[in-house]
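Please check this.
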Amino acid sequence: AAAIVLTASRDVARRKGNNSVVRLAGSGAATDILCVMDRPEPLHLSAVEKSTRQALAHARIDMSAVDLFELHDAYSIMACLCLESAGFALPGQGTHFANDGHLALNGILPIATFGGLKARGHPVGATGVYQAAEVFL
């Protein structure tokens, strides 16, 4: 699978007859301590917490306005840890959040709507591009 994101000004996009203009409202980026055993809380992903706060602030919204959450789910546990660290689920409750159907396409917070990273071969460098294209689809 391949993905590409082409950008243009809103005026140019509309002139081309495309009514499907997508606006990226916010984004964030953060890093964490690489060695898990050196982290104060091994199951808390501070980079996820920080980048989520940045993205929400950039978009000028709060968590209640989020209706889709794209995350880096390289390993099965990462989805739960990301949901919890971002604040969408309480610590230790990510699996319950999923089991209650909240992450399904018709749930309150769909994630990995096309199967996540493993479903697309874990394209490390292209993950963000694919996720942007997936949101549009």
